[in-house]
Structures are given as structure tokens and as C-alpha cells.
Fold this sequence. Notes:
By secondary structure, the protein is α+β, with helices and mostly antiparallel strands. It has 2 domains: about 1-155 and about 290-300, Ribosomal Protein S5, domain 2, CATH 3.30.230; about 160-285, Alpha-Beta Plaits, CATH 3.30.70.890. It is about 35% helix and about 30% strand. The strands form 2 sheets. Strands 1, 2, 3, 4, 5, 6 and 11 form a 7-stranded mixed β-sheet that branches. Strands 8-9-7-10 form a 4-stranded antiparallel β-sheet. The termini are close together. The structure holds L-homoserine (HSE).
Amino acid sequence: MIRVQVPATTANMGPGFDCLGMALELHNVVEMIPSSRGVVIEVCGEGAAEIPRDENNLVFQSARRVFMQAGFPVAGLKIRLVNQIPVARGLGSSTAAIVGGIIAANILTGGKLSVRDMITLASSIEGHPDNVAPAILGGIVVSVDDDGEIKYLKIEPPFGLKGVVAIPDFNLVTKISREAIPAQVLFQDAAFNVGRVALLVAALHQGDLSMLGAAMEDRLHQSFRSPLIPGLKKVLAAAKLAGARGVTLSGAGPSVIAFADSNFELIARVMGETFQQNGIKSRVLVLKPSPIGARALEVK
Ligand code: HSE
């Protein structure tokens, strides 16, 4: 039996659309056992009511890609998922499924894929590397797709930094959230993001949290997605007033993540209350960055 743990991730971190993400201390666990025939999938925790139990399951589909690539015949598979990551909330639940399936299947097939191979395969399934790379490597990762090859560099999370994450009680599928973004943006807005993301990477690298307010501003995606998330602008403002260093949509949303090094309880309370005042129920978690990425907990 193989048991793999994969962290949640927050992608974009404001201006780093599709290229910046951080792993968080919230995990899904994938257990995988080869069997004589059929596919049996059990799901506990987050998404238990909605995650497919058949061959449409993303963990199974991702594992099958590895088995096929390795030429490894699998008659059947038992998969058990123990999920802490809320589904379709912008916290990397689909990435965790893909990465968990790939890593477990890679161990079963003798570990032929390198970390780089797994990042490339997972990104090709997910469509972008910004969640996949930190889910596998941990920490904060800058990643880009260079003609099918993922180039990446890891940054250790700054000391004392935590994410206060307000998770609305509705799903927002990434595909729908991406459709809200226009095909073209103004040159000034692209230039604005280039400056912000460069400042953000330098600030994270140096641990200078005082820069996050300015560095996490975005003009490429967040305002276009705002109509899909009632109260978003007010939640962003409330978190900053309560002492957040920077605050942004987590991934494609609808969750909002505030980065802070103090005032965690207050920031959590005002984010939840502000969503509530806009008719949205939410829960709020205070999460540490996960310095380590996905790993095998058990191989036997
Ligand atoms: N970068 C993606 C987006 C989120 O903003 O659509 C990560 O899946």
C-alpha cells in the first residue's frame, strides 16, 4: 500500500498569474493499492459527496497516465482519499488529486519519474504549473511553462508569515473563473503586474513583508473575477484594515487569502464577518506555509 500526502496551495499570490504559488499546511492523503480487477474508490472528508468514484476520478486518471507511460499493466486499483482541502475553492484541490495520483503511481511503478518529470506531467494535466510546483516542492515556487518544459525556482517562505484564508461556502470551478478574464488587457495593466510580481518575488526572497501591500496588487485577473465573488472587494479592504500585510484572491477563487505576521484572529474575524454581511457564509482558517511538498507517508 502506498500512502501519499499532498499540501493545499494558493496560486497567483496577487499579480503572479499562473506562475507563482505557495504550499499550505492543509493536506489531502491518497492511499493506493493494486488489486486483481476493477476500480474501487473511497472518499472521506472534503468533497466526499461530490468526488467521482469511477474512472472519471482525477486521482485515478492521473495515476493511469503514469501506469501507461511506464508500460505497467494494472488489473485493478483501490484508492482511498482522505481530504482536508475544500473542493473548487481556489486551494489546489484538483492539483492535490493529480499530484497524489502521480506520486503514488510512480512509486508503484518503481519510481521512474523524476521530480521534474512529475511537475511536467502534473502541469500538463492541470493546464498551468502554479499550484502543481509548490504542491510537489513545498514552499513558494515561481514556475513557467517553457515550450512544454516547466522551469521553476523555490523560495523559502518568510519567517512568521501565515495565510488567513476565508473560504466561501460555494464552489467556483477554475474554468468558469478563467472565462471571466478578457483575452486581451491594456499594456499599462500588463506593465503594472510585471512590476508588482518582480517586487513580490524580491520581497518574499528577502522576507520583507512590508512590501506585500503594494507588491500583491493585480490588474490582470482579480477585478474581472470580482463579480463572481460577492463582497470580494470589501473582504480585501477589511483584511488590510485589520492588519494584513497583503490580501488577494486565492488561485481562481472564491477563497480569499490574507498574508500576515500578527493579528491573525482579528483578520480572520473581519474577513468572515464581511463575507457574511454580503450574504456569503464562509469559514476561516489560519494556515502556515508548508515548507515541504508532497511526500510518501507509507510504502509497503
Ligand atoms: N492561476 C490559476 C488561475 C489558478 O488564476 O486561474 C490556479 O489554478
